[in-house]
Structure of Glycosyltransferase:
Amino acid sequence: MPKTLVVIVNWNGWRDSIACIRSCLMLDRPVRIMLCDNDSADGSVDQILAWAKGEGAPPDAAAPVSLDPGKRPDGVALMERAAAERGDDGGGAQLLIVRTGGNLGFAGGNNIGLRWALARDYDHAWLLNNDAVAAPDALSALVRAMEAQPAPGMAGSILLDFERPDRVQALAGAMRRKTFKARHLGTGLPAREAERADVAALLRPGEFLYPVGASMLVSRDFLTRVGLMREDYFLYHEEADWVLRGEGLFPLAIATDSRVYHHMGASTGFTENAMSRGAAGYLYRSRLLLARHFAPRNMPFVILRMLKDAAHAVRHGNGARAQGILRALLGRVRPPQG
């Protein structure tokens, strides 16, 4: 069976992370799990390590999937970033907890796990948000969808709403090539209809498809040929960047039978209807970076669209979002130094 590493990035969210790990222990195929902690200030590493060692019951988690309260990983190892990136085995422990040494953002935290997977000759890496729990067959469905492609590279799950598991949060993402404005596809669709959905048919002219980053599987071949995530984004749109970099080399698969239940914005302050100033700043900063990387001639259209978004936010009473957009445009959104 192909070897898969599950990579989970944690930042001040140990309760969510434990629930996520517990769902991975219920998968119908064996995996190793690497949790990369981005310098949490809430004692996350100690809390997760203690739970993994069987010291006390797991925190209460009313999850839409079955979580065995007595199940623990088959061994746990704590390591520093350098050891993880050179591929240290951690004594064969099923759960590897890595202190990254700083807040490296989504890409930086995940890249540590991706480097480990490459060093250990793993076939796939599954990037799974810590504020999500997976159905037992979610990974198997991703692998099937990826392997059905002529050049297996990347596959995304559908996301169901953690609080309303009978509703779709997103089948996938869609982004306009001209303005790099993104939207979620299928939001609010009944979950029972998701598996039959024709995701590509939901695209509008001028849009491309990308997997929502809360759950995506990448192959070793994809990582070798396309490369790791770009860390300059820090937060948001790394998956769209990956799709554009792999365009023409690897088709994208959306596994509509791979179900992952996701809290919207549990760690970032982002929701469909409102967002914090910080979340908005990072989101629109990443949008500008995408445009600069892939379509610098379109920058006037991107900036105009962002100004329209800011005006819309003001009209609808979301001043925090408008401030974040303007800060991004003025270059005042600066990620912490990892």
Remarks:
- The radius of gyration is 19 Å.
- Residues 168 and 193 are 9 Å apart (CA to CA).
- The chain has two domains: 4-156+213-247, 277-329.
- The longest strand covers residues 252-262.
